[in-house]
Amino acid sequence: MDLLTPRHLKIANWVVLSILVVGGYVGVGREFALGVLVGGLLVVVNFHLLHRFLKGTLERAQIDGENKGQAQAFFAAKQLLRFFGLLFIVYFLVRHGWVNVIGLVLGLSTVVLTLTLLGINEMIKLKNKEANPSHGTSHPLS
After folding, report:
1. Which of 8, 74, 115, 120 has the least CB density, counted as fewest CB within 10 Å?
2. End-to-end CA distance of the chain
3. pLDDT of 12-41, one tens digit each?
4. Domain definitions of the chain by residue range
5. Distance (Å, rounded) from C-alpha 68 to C-alpha 64?
6. Residue 137 and residue 129: Cα distance in Å, rounded?
């Protein structure tokens, strides 16, 4: 099973966010867990939008190859808007003190933590595949 498909990445993001929120609530408290939840929701939704925009841009560029540059420029403009929108929301939340800042930062790290964990998982699978001579070549890669 390939864990690096967009669907699996999205599911893994929700699982990691859930673990962080519950751990934050149990370990630190309600305000911290709220910060983690808000930061996680922001970054997971942001990740979903990035996937959707990128998929749409690639489909448009594949259908209409002549306007590929225009599709790329439109994608870049959407990403800038998405980034500044996220920046504004984070600034607004911190400025008004509605969330725990450390919790918010931890929540905003949800996607990075997910990608890191899945990357480590893939490395372990590759190492195990190299160690087992029945899966691949008889020559070591190192």
Report:
1. 120
2. 26
3. 999 999 999 999 999 999 999 999 999 999
4. 6-116
5. 7
6. 10
